[in-house]
Amino acid sequence: MAGVYADMALRHGGAGFRAMLATYTRDTSATQAACHGDAPLPAEVQVGVAQLAHLLGAMSVDSGYPALAQDYFVIAVRLADEAHHPSLSAITLRELSAQALDHGFGPLGLQLAERSWQRAIQSECATIRSFVLVQRGHAHAMNGDRSQALRDLRAAEAHHDGASQRHGPFRSYPQAGLLYRRGQILEALGEPRAAIEAWQSALSSRDPSHRRQLGLTRARLAEVCLRSRRMDAACAHWSNFLDHYPYVRSDRMDRALAVMRTQLGHHRLVPEVAELLSRARILSGLRRKSFGG
């Protein structure tokens, strides 16, 4: 079931499925606890529950509940460690690192990325190492260490090139994901043109059904293009972002919409911008009527 919920979040955001997954996780955990009584839970059961807790953490982030997300991630790390599953622990610590960076806690984000890497080197899985190293590279970039950020990026790309192709959550890392992180690192290092190239490549290789990632990538492209005074390109990306927005319930998408309205508000007299702002107002109003947010 973890794969089913993970796929739904990729397609439509995690906010719409968090409560459903929470109920499923609670019932599954209670059933397993009743079956085993006072005996310790088998490692495979702990791993399964840890995966569900990890997904709940990610969905809580997408629902705008960062503290709740942190609680779920911490539970997932504890269960993964108890089950001696370093790959899952590394993946979850990576998410905690990303959450810290997203909220402006650069040193903490780097510390968590280092802890994630210590688990990853125990897994001997090239995919996991790539996934973790590119996050550590982003953390170094956000903390101003250019040389280490680029070293980690190159190492992540090398591991990804040598990884066997796998499918499913907690096993695969698509090329589009690595390219998106490459763009984040390069933008943080002050290279907007290279970041734009990376994000455009990410769009080309992204599964077209993964609307959340597509929308967020378009938003990043639009923001950087606007800062680079490429108004036509920014409007095109924001238009594509709005195409995805109605199908995704995600706090990050909502925040991106708010950024769009703020940034484009300074250019409202441009006809193309006025049309985008009108679309954004309509979509925002429909979202509030539908979900009260």
What does this structure look like?
The structure is a single chain. With 293 residues, this protein is an all-alpha fold. The protein has a domain at 214-293. The protein is 78% helix and 0% strand. It has helices at residues 2-12, 18-36, 43-62, 66-82, 86-102, 106-123, 126-142, 146-161, 175-188, 192-205, 211-227, 231-244, 251-265, 271-291. It is globular, with a radius of gyration of 20 Å. The model has no long low-confidence stretch (mean pLDDT 92).
List the keywords.
single chain; 14 helices; globular; 293 residues
Write the H/E string, N to C. Answer: HHHHHHHHHHHHHH
How many helical elements?
14
The biggest sheet, with number of strands, parallel, antiparallel or mixed sense and barrel status, is: none
Shape: globular
Low-confidence stretches: none
N→C terminal distance: 28 Å
What is the CA-based Rg, rounded?
20 Å
Percent of residues in beta strands? under 5%
For the secondary structure, the number of strands is 0
Report the average pLDDT across residues: 92
Structural class: mainly alpha
Secondary structure: helix percent: over 70%
